[in-house]
Sequence to fold (227 residues):
Amino acid sequence: QVQLVESGGGVVQPGRSLRLSCAASRFAFSTYDMHWVRQAPGRGLEWVAVLSNDGTKNYYADSVKGRFTISRDNSKNTLFLQMNTLGDEDTGVYYCARNSVVSTGGFDYWGQGTLVTVSS
Amino acid sequence: DIQMTQSPSTLSAAVGDRVTITCRASQTVSSWLAWYQQKPGKAPKLLIFDASSLQSEVPSSFSGRGYGTEFNLTISSVQPDDVATYHCQQYKSYPWTFGQGTKVEVK
Fold:
């Protein structure tokens, strides 16, 4: 069964940085586009960023563009999200998600999420 | 950006009722639409992709319809295990966007 395990969340002060990781297993990680999606407490889902399978193409939500960087290490089956200049609005659960294999879009597998709390 | 609007925000149904959730897009997304189920404290689960295709191992009580700007998710006979928040999401163009969610309660 496909497995995605996020880590790296925690409490961080406004303006500081945090790096999230997502360890993938039981599928051919290097052949899939991968995404980060977040959810603020009690709110809906917000797509954050995507990185192509080979790491050459990426897109970001306007709310994080210039502050967040998505990257991957296909040799270690790991996806990353470097988050800089964090603000209160970045608080939430961050999920990594795999792009669907049967369609051009959608997320067919999700991790359990890692909680990021931005607070002084 | 494409805005996705779901209605209703909350619905309450009796066991066995047929329930329908609507998702409207601010511009056409063709059939590039997915539906997810999210139970409290859990990650979302893909139910429907390409507007009407049932994801593997999802019960046939779930179905999706629509094209362009208006879409529906229907649960043919709602059960207690269907208590969850349901989200629509477009993947016609980046940034991919979600609706605000519909919370389904079962009486």
Notes: The two ends of chain A are 39 Å apart (CA to CA). Chain A touches chain B at residues 44-47, 50, 59-62, 95, 100, 102-108, 110-113 (CB under 8 Å). The mean pLDDT of chain A is 96. Chain A has no helices and eleven strands.
